[in-house]
Design goal:
about 220 residues; 2 strands; globular; single chain; 9 helices
Length: about 220
């Protein structure tokens, strides 16, 4: 069994500045994100948001089965950060920075250019457990602050880090890529996002990719 590179049993809040635990401070970015998420969700009314819509939205049908990969996204984030925190601190730092960059850029866009989508069906075409769960999701996650999609941005970031991970078999990497593709598609098939939100996430990911993996400033310092 693979041995963790850090013994977190020794961790105490007072040791957060110790070199072996200092990488955990990057998790503080989630606190800032949730604060900004709460503010944008509650202080920007829907009528102040610009509706996002492109022709692809009318072509993509509603399909409740895509709720499964949509929800798996949450587990993928926790698993990836947890795995890298245990076995590859450098990858943990890269993924955390990637997520932090996409969070900050997306939140700035949500504040400066508020957006919403009006794609949610008023009546589900079918009544089953999955549509019931989607109804709950609609209730707790508003249709504002959607462009670019962080579901897409995080997923691409996770795939980018995993594909660079050495010692991981290609079959697992291939399965991960399939899951990430399904997650990106799920945002559109359960009508949580417009296809435009997907395309808008791509340049945000490109920026994060450059800053995390090809930072020109870091090369100049060497």
């Amino acid at each position: 069994m693979k041995k963790p590179v850090v013994d977190y049993r020794q961790f105490r809040p007072g040791k957060l500045n110790d070199p072996q635990f200092s990488h955990l401070k990057l998790l503080g970015g989630w606190i800032l994100y949730f604060i900004l998420y709460f503010l944008t969700e509650n202080l920007i009314p829907p009528e102040k948001c610009t509706p996002v819509h492109i022709w692809l939205d009318d072509v993509i049908p509603f399909c409740e089965w895509f709720l499964i990969p949509y929800v798996l996204w949450y587990g993928l984030i926790v698993f990836s950060l947890g795995y890298f925190a245990l076995y590859n601190i450098d990858s943990f730092k890269k993924l955390s920075k990637y997520i932090l960059i996409t969070q900050l850029v997306a939140m700035a866009i949500y504040i400066l250019f508020p957006s919403r989508q009006d794609l949610r069906p008023e009546v589900f075409p079918r009544e089953n457990f999955l549509t019931w769960c989607i109804g709950l999701l609609y209730r707790f996650d508003t249709s504002t602050g959607v462009c670019p999609s962080l579901h897409v941005a995080y997923s691409i970031g996770i795939a980018s880090v995993w594909l660079r991970e050495k010692g991981v078999k290609w079959i697992w990497k291939a399965l991960l890529v399939v899951l990430v593709i399904l997650i990106c598609l799920s945002t559109m098939f359960i009508k949580q996002h417009s296809a435009m939100d997907f395309f808008a996430a791509l340049p945000v990911c490109a920026l994060a990719e450059i800053l995390v993996f090809y930072n020109p400033l870091r090369k100049r310092k060497r």
